Amino acid sequence: DVQLVESGGGSAQPGGSLTLSCAAGRYTYKRNCMGWFRQRPGKDREGVAVLWIGGAQTTYADSVKGRFIISKDNAKNILFLQMNSLKSEDTAMYYCAAGDARVSCVTNDFIYWGQGTQVTVS
Description:
Layout: E1 4-7, E2 10-12, E3 18-24, H1 26-29, E4 33-39, E5 45-52, E6 57-60, E7 68-73, E8 78-83, E9 92-99, E10 110-113, E11 117-121
Parallel strand pairs: 2-11
Antiparallel strand pairs: 1-3, 3-8, 4-5, 4-9, 5-6, 7-8, 9-10, 9-11
Protein backbone atom coordinates (compact mmCIF):
# COMPACT_ATOMS: atom_id res chain seq x y z
CA ASP A 1 0.00 0.00 0.00
CA VAL A 2 1.76 3.14 -1.24
CA GLN A 3 -0.84 5.77 -0.53
CA LEU A 4 -0.05 9.10 1.03
CA VAL A 5 -3.04 11.29 1.83
CA GLU A 6 -2.56 14.78 3.18
CA SER A 7 -5.11 16.74 5.18
CA GLY A 8 -5.27 19.74 7.46
CA GLY A 9 -4.61 22.49 4.98
CA GLY A 10 -6.71 25.61 4.86
CA SER A 11 -6.54 29.30 5.61
CA ALA A 12 -4.77 30.98 8.48
CA GLN A 13 -3.83 34.48 9.47
CA PRO A 14 -0.21 35.56 9.78
CA GLY A 15 1.07 34.43 13.14
CA GLY A 16 -1.40 31.59 13.29
CA SER A 17 -0.91 27.84 13.29
CA LEU A 18 -1.96 24.84 11.26
CA THR A 19 -1.12 21.17 11.57
CA LEU A 20 -0.93 19.04 8.46
CA SER A 21 -1.41 15.29 8.57
CA CYS A 22 -0.33 12.63 6.13
CA ALA A 23 -1.94 9.22 6.41
CA ALA A 24 0.45 6.70 4.95
CA GLY A 25 -0.04 3.17 3.75
CA ARG A 26 1.88 0.48 5.59
CA TYR A 27 4.50 0.20 2.85
CA THR A 28 5.22 3.90 2.50
CA TYR A 29 5.25 4.49 6.23
CA LYS A 30 8.15 2.02 6.50
CA ARG A 31 10.36 3.97 4.11
CA ASN A 32 13.38 5.48 5.81
CA CYS A 33 12.83 8.94 4.39
CA MET A 34 9.62 10.80 5.05
CA GLY A 35 9.06 14.47 4.61
CA TRP A 36 7.05 17.50 3.69
CA PHE A 37 7.61 19.59 0.60
CA ARG A 38 5.83 22.65 -0.70
CA GLN A 39 5.37 24.50 -3.94
CA ARG A 40 4.73 28.19 -3.66
CA PRO A 41 3.10 30.10 -6.52
CA GLY A 42 5.59 30.61 -9.30
CA LYS A 43 8.31 28.66 -7.47
CA ASP A 44 9.86 25.22 -7.71
CA ARG A 45 8.94 22.57 -5.19
CA GLU A 46 11.15 22.73 -2.11
CA GLY A 47 11.80 20.60 0.91
CA VAL A 48 10.32 21.91 4.12
CA ALA A 49 11.02 19.21 6.70
CA VAL A 50 12.58 15.80 6.23
CA LEU A 51 12.97 12.84 8.54
CA TRP A 52 15.76 10.40 7.78
CA ILE A 53 14.61 7.58 9.98
CA GLY A 54 17.67 5.46 9.27
CA GLY A 55 19.94 8.09 10.75
CA ALA A 56 17.48 9.57 13.22
CA GLN A 57 18.04 12.92 11.54
CA THR A 58 15.60 15.77 10.99
CA THR A 59 16.28 18.57 8.54
CA TYR A 60 14.33 21.79 8.12
CA ALA A 61 14.47 24.45 5.47
CA ASP A 62 16.05 27.62 6.85
CA SER A 63 12.83 29.51 6.17
CA VAL A 64 10.85 27.34 8.60
CA LYS A 65 13.40 26.52 11.31
CA GLY A 66 12.03 27.27 14.74
CA ARG A 67 8.49 27.52 13.40
CA PHE A 68 7.65 24.11 11.89
CA ILE A 69 7.90 20.70 13.54
CA ILE A 70 7.76 17.34 11.79
CA SER A 71 6.66 14.31 13.76
CA LYS A 72 5.24 10.81 13.38
CA ASP A 73 2.59 8.71 15.05
CA ASN A 74 3.85 5.18 14.55
CA ALA A 75 0.70 3.62 15.96
CA LYS A 76 -1.44 5.27 13.29
CA ASN A 77 1.05 5.57 10.40
CA ILE A 78 0.64 9.33 10.28
CA LEU A 79 3.22 11.99 9.53
CA PHE A 80 2.54 15.48 10.88
CA LEU A 81 3.76 18.96 10.14
CA GLN A 82 2.99 21.46 12.86
CA MET A 83 3.27 24.96 11.45
CA ASN A 84 3.47 27.88 13.86
CA SER A 85 4.02 31.61 13.43
CA LEU A 86 2.77 31.35 9.89
CA LYS A 87 3.80 33.95 7.34
CA SER A 88 2.26 34.95 4.04
CA GLU A 89 5.26 33.40 2.29
CA ASP A 90 4.25 30.00 3.71
CA THR A 91 1.31 30.03 1.31
CA ALA A 92 1.80 26.96 -0.86
CA MET A 93 0.61 23.52 -1.80
CA TYR A 94 2.12 21.14 0.73
CA TYR A 95 3.03 17.58 -0.19
CA CYS A 96 3.87 14.56 1.89
CA ALA A 97 6.48 12.23 0.41
CA ALA A 98 8.36 9.05 1.22
CA GLY A 99 11.32 7.12 -0.10
CA ASP A 100 14.54 5.38 0.83
CA ALA A 101 18.12 6.52 1.11
CA ARG A 102 21.39 4.99 2.25
CA VAL A 103 23.16 8.01 3.64
CA SER A 104 20.71 10.85 4.03
CA CYS A 105 17.51 11.91 2.36
CA VAL A 106 17.64 14.17 -0.66
CA THR A 107 14.76 15.16 -2.89
CA ASN A 108 15.49 12.52 -5.53
CA ASP A 109 15.13 9.80 -2.89
CA PHE A 110 11.44 10.61 -2.49
CA ILE A 111 9.49 8.54 -4.98
CA TYR A 112 6.08 8.34 -3.33
CA TRP A 113 4.03 11.51 -3.24
CA GLY A 114 0.64 12.58 -2.00
CA GLN A 115 -1.75 14.82 -3.90
CA GLY A 116 -1.09 17.83 -1.72
CA THR A 117 -3.04 20.11 0.58
CA GLN A 118 -3.30 23.85 0.11
CA VAL A 119 -2.21 26.27 2.83
CA THR A 120 -3.07 29.93 2.46
CA VAL A 121 -1.81 32.54 4.91
CA SER A 122 -3.34 36.00 4.60
